């Protein structure tokens, strides 16, 4: 795990490893993750590190934890880069629409 994610804190390495497992299909939406202790053992980190990794994953929408039920994988959330591309595309489309409407308005004003 260390070689794959250098420069990250231990909890970030665990979170990134779990994200990679979701992206690769090793973990699927609806799959149940091990308990906090199970995650700590699987990824060979302290319990607090595992808890922090799972909290970060939940905050980012990768997993959902229900007390007394378990922690489950969600659908893969859109990556920030994809969200930025989608936003940039929407802004470009709006700019084109505004430019078109502006040209139409100018044409109508010239007719008056």
UniProtKB/TrEMBL annotation:
CDD domains: WHTH_GntR (cd07377). Keywords: Coiled coil, DNA-binding, Transcription, Transcription regulation. The keyword RNA-binding does not apply. InterPro entries: Tscrpt_reg_HTH_GntR (IPR000524), WH-like_DNA-bd_sf (IPR036388), WH_DNA-bd_sf (IPR036390). Pfam families: GntR. Residues 8-76 form the HTH gntR-type domain. GO terms for molecular function: DNA binding; DNA-binding transcription factor activity. Residues 84-111 form a coiled coil. This is Regulatory protein, gntR family. It comes from Actinopolyspora mzabensis. The lineage of its organism: Bacteria, Bacillati, Actinomycetota, Actinomycetes, Actinopolysporales.
């Amino acid at each position: 795990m260390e070689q794959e994610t250098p420069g990250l804190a231990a909890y970030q390495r665990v979170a990134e490893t779990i994200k990679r497992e979701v992206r690769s299909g090793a973990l699927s939406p609806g799959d149940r993750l091990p308990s906090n202790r199970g995650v700590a053992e699987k990824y060979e980190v302290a319990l607090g590190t595992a808890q922090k990794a799972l909290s970060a994953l939940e905050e980012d929408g990768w997993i959902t934890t229900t007390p007394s039920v378990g922690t489950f994988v969600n659908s893969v959330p859109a990556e920030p880069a994809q969200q930025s591309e989608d936003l940039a595309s929407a802004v470009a489309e709006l700019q084109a629409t505004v430019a078109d409407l502006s040209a139409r308005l100018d044409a109508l004003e010239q007719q008056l």
